[in-house]
Amino acid sequence: MVMDKHQLSKVLEELSDHRGRNTELVSLYIPPEYDIRKIINFLNSEQSEAQNIKSKNTRKNVISALEKMERRLKNAGEIPDNGIALFSGNVSEQEGRPDIQMWEVEPHEPIESRRYKCDKEFLLEPLEDLLIDKEVYGMICIDKSEAAIGYVRGNHLTVEHTLESQVPGKTTKGGQSQQRFERIRENLYDTFLNQVADKAKQAFLQKARDDELLGLIVGGPGFSKEDLTEKDYLPKELLEKLLTTIGTNYSGEEGLKELLNKAEDVIQESEAIREKQKVNQFLVNLKKENGKSVFGLEDVAKALQMGAVDTLLFSEDFEKKEARFECPECGKEEVKHISDFEAENESHSCEECGANMDLEEKKDVVEMFQKKASQMDSSVMIISRQHEEGERLWNMGGVAAILRYRIR
Ligand SMILES: [Zn+2]
Question: How far apart are CA 215 and CA 245, in angstroms?
C-alpha cells in the first residue's frame, strides 16, 4: 500500500528510534522496474557473506533479517509502482533474545536508486528526502523552433523536457503554393504548441494540484510565449499560476537559463508575498487567541515534537545554537539555547557546585528543527527581514509556528 507523506513521516519516526546492538539493522531500497530476481540473488549472496560475521548472535540476526526480506520479495513477485524500501533487523532490548522485525514502505514518490546498508541504525535519508518541501517555480522557454520546460527549486534549475518543432522557416514563393505552405505551417505550429502544453501539464499539473507549484514563468524571443499563454493551450489551473512572461534572446535550454536570471526579481517578489502571507496568518491567529500560533524556542520545540506544527517560521538572521554543558566537578548537565559567541566565549558556572562547566556539544537550532520538521511533515519557511512582517517576526524572537491544531 502506498503511504502518504503523513504515514511515511510516522514510520520514519518509528524506524529512527531503533538502534541495533551491533551492525545488524538492514535497509534495502529498490527503485521501480528493478529486476526482482537480481535483488533476490543479491540477498542470497549477502546471506552467504554474512556467514563470516564473527559474533554468533549478530550473524544469526543479520541472516534472519535478510531471509525475511527475501521471503517478502518472493511473495510479492514484482516491485510496486514507486519501488519499495525494506527495513529489517533485531530490535530486541534484551541480549540473546532476538526479536526480528520487518517494515516495508511504498512511498508516494518513486525511490530513485538502489541502496543497501547493514548498520547499527536504519538508512532513512532517501525517504526523508521525499518529505522535504517540493515547492517549485515552473519555467517554459519557447519560440517557433524549440521549447524547454523546467523548474526551479531554491536556486537550482532542473530541465524536464526539451522539444523541437517541425515548423519550417518562412519562404517568399508567393501564389497558391505559398497559401498552402502557410496553412501547413500554421498546423505544424499549432501541433507544436499543443505538444509543449502537454509536456507542461505532465511537469506541473500534479504539482499545481498539490499546492507545490509556486508560480509559472514563460519566456522566449518571439510571440510564441504569448501564443502559448493567451490562447487555449494551457489549462486554467496552470494559467492561474502564471506570474509573468519575459522576452529572452535565446530559446530552448539556453533560454531557460536566461529566463531564470531575468525572472529573479519576479521570484523574489512572489517569495516576499508568500512570506508576508504566512507571517500575517501567524499574527492573526495570535490576535484571535485561537491557540494556533506559538512563538519562542521552547514553545515551538514542544509543538514540533508533538507533530502539531503546520509551518515553522524562522527569521533569516536567526542563528542560535543548542549547547550542552557538563560540570567537570559534579557531572551536572545543562542545555542552553544561546548564540555561537555565548557558547564559545562566555563562562557558564554550575548551579550545583559553582564550577566552570565545559561545552560538550553544540548544534545549530535551525538545522535541528528542520530535520525534525521533515520527520513530522511540517513545512519550514525562512522569513527575510526586508519587509515589515519579517521585522515583526524577528522582534518576537525570530522563531514561530503555525499549528495544525491547538495544543493547550
Ligand atoms: Zn557542578
Answer: 12
